[in-house]
Each structure stands twice: as structure tokens, then as C-alpha cells.
Amino acid sequence: MKYLSEYRDPMLVEDFLNEIHKITNQPWTLMEICGGQTHSLVKNGIPALLPDKITLVHGPGCPVCVTSIGIIDEAIFLAQQPDVILCSFGDMLRVPGSQKSLLEVKAQGADVRIMYSPLEAVKLAEENPNKQVVFFAVGFETTAPANALSVVLAAQSNLENYSILASHVLVPPAMEAILSDESNKIDAFLAAGHVCTIMGLDEYYPIAQKYQCPIVVTGFEPVDLLQGILMAVKQLENGEFKVENQYARSVMPQGNLIAQKTILQVFEVNDRVWRGIGNIPQSGYDVRNDFKKYNAREKFNIDIIPAEENKECISGDIMKGLKKPKQCPNFGTKCKPEHPLGAPMVSSEGACAAYYHYAQN
Question: Which of 55, 16, 12, 61 is nearest to 38 (CA)?
Fold first, then answer.
């Protein structure tokens, strides 16, 4: 496959593995932030090929997994309102809220539609002036530009029947929350390449220095990940803690300045509750007052009391790197993709789903 085959080259994979084995002298725990990285690592069997002294744990880099029960309940509330079309990425439909999921309310008659882009939802609002169209705007910094752009376009067209339910979460504050936790055991991070393609590297330098923790930005193919692991282990073995960019073919140090400008035009940073983790200060985006007519929370006066999380789900410990999915007593038995206790078993980027599909044996 053009432009991908070289990043799946077995010879390069073997070379990087040999070098990792050669230089590893001490035990190290590395966390990959993104669920896309997790799936690639597990699918390709990379954890089993690494030295025994290297432990890979899986971070909170799946926005579907960390979207709080309260926000899922808000989306369900909106979907059940008269003359509302709720649009969402497909992963969100099966994520359990406090009582049910979006898929269940869709089966009960709610107009819930899967979209691949918020711009599709803007077009849907134009075509259905008698309906209120709400887009469930979930994601890390990666999806924020498109969601912000949908609001800008709706404002330019003076669409009165379009709004978004913002549920954006931000990576650097989550990394700080993990590193500052008294139970933290992370020695280095593999940072998410697609997030850094948008936001650049600047936010990571103070984290690396403050916590003396190497941060290596990687892509998502086997060669990307192994090269990133090698770069991180070299730093650890040498007592260094720098920010390095393995994914230079996509990530520029400054990021995408046009995308950042669009984000800041529509969104402001606020606190956000992360499912399984709790409140992380200044770790989310919400719609600015300048665009509050496109904020579904304002438009529909949503006031839902947050529900308690399922105590049988240990997703918080998994996403903080304290446990592996198979250490959950309900993994593969009471919790399966068809009937999940928590979001990491549902999402295409969830760590539990990765282990269920690729690492059962």
C-alpha cells in the first residue's frame, strides 16, 4: 500500500526490535496515549515482542471512552426531544449512559443518525428547516477544527436550527493528571500523532521538564510505534526527558495554525469530567458565548443531575495505566462488545475492545 507499506516493513520491525532489546537494561513503563496506537500495538502483537523489562500500558486517548455518563445522558435527552435530529459519530451510539444508550433510544423511535462529519449535519439542518439538528461533538483536539467550522458555517448561513453538544477533551491536561497522581508509574509517553498534527508540540515541553518524563510523538503503524518506543527507551536509559517527534511526516512543531485559529474562534477551555477518571481542570472545550445560540446546552436548557458510574467497570484504572483490561473480573464474561459495562469495550479505539478482539489468546 503506497505510503504505508514502508511503515509495515518486517525488516524494519525486526531492526527496531533488536535495537530495543539491545539497549534495554532497566524496567520501564511506557504509556501510549491514543486508542489508535493501542489497537495497532495489540493487533500486531508488539507487546509480546518487546523485552520483559518494558511494560506498555494504555492511556485515556479514546474520546468515546472518556465521555462522561452525564454527557451521554444529555445526548439521550436531546434525542428524545420533539422535532430533534441528533447526529453522532457511530462509536457513540452503543456507549451506555446511566439508563440506556443512544442506540436504544433510536430503537424506541428517536431520530438518531450516524454522520461522518459535522458538515453533513449542517447540510441536514439546511434541508430540514422545521427540525432542530444537534451534532454530538465528541473528540480530542483532532476533531475540534471540523466541529468548530460547522458552527462558523451555520452562523454565516444564519441557521437557527443547528447546534452542537460539545464534549471535547484535551490531551496535555490528562497527561498531567496521570503524572501527578500518587499512584503514577509511567516513565515515558508515546503521544498521539494526530492530536499533535493539529496542536503542535509546545504544550508538551513543560510537562516533560516538570515531571522529567520523555514524550515521543508517534504515528500509528508498527514501524512508527517501535521507533517511538526505541526513542523513549534511549532517553530513559540515558537519563534524559525530552520531547521528540517520530511522526515528522505529519506533525510540524507549530501544528496547524489555521485549525488552531478556528478552534479558538468557537471554543473556550473549561473543566471536564472524564469517565472513569473524574474532573480534570481546564481539560475540555465548550462553545464560547459569542456562539451560544449554537450551544445545545443553552438552546435546550439542559439540566441533568450526573449519575454515578458503574462500579463494576474498572475503566478508570485501565486508562490511568494501573491495570490491564484482562485484570478486570468482568472482561469477556459480563462485559463484552455486545453488552458492555463501560465505554472501552464499545469504542473502536477502546483498550478493552482491542484486547477482546486481538489478544484473547
Answer: 61
User: Distance between CA 194 and CA 188 in Å, rounded?
Assistant: 19
DSSP character for 288? -
CB 157, CB 186: distance < 8 Å? no
Pair 197, 251: CB distance under 8 Å: yes
* Residue burial 230-245, b: 16+ Cβ < 10 Å; e: rest: bbbbbbbeeeebbbbb
Which residues contact residue 325 at a Cβ distance below 8 angstroms, ignoring those fewer than 6 apart? 58, 318, 331, 344, 351, 352, 354, 355, 356
Nine cell digits for residue 237: 536509559
Q: Which residues contact 75 (CB under 8 A, 6 or more apart)?
A: 86, 88, 92, 97, 102, 136, 165
3-class DSSP assignment, residue 346: coil
pLDDT in tens, 13-57: 999 999 999 999 999 999 999 989 999 999 999 999 999 999 999
- Answer whether 336's CB lies under 8 Å from 346's CB: no
The tens digit of pLDDT for each residue in 288-346 reads 999 999 999 999 998 887 777 778 888 888 888 888 889 999 998 998 888 888 778 87
Domains, in order of start, for the chain: 1-312 (3.40.50.11740), 315-358 (no CATH)
CA dist 52 → 23, 42, 46, 48, 302 (Å): 13, 16, 12, 8, 50
Residue with cell 459569542: 290
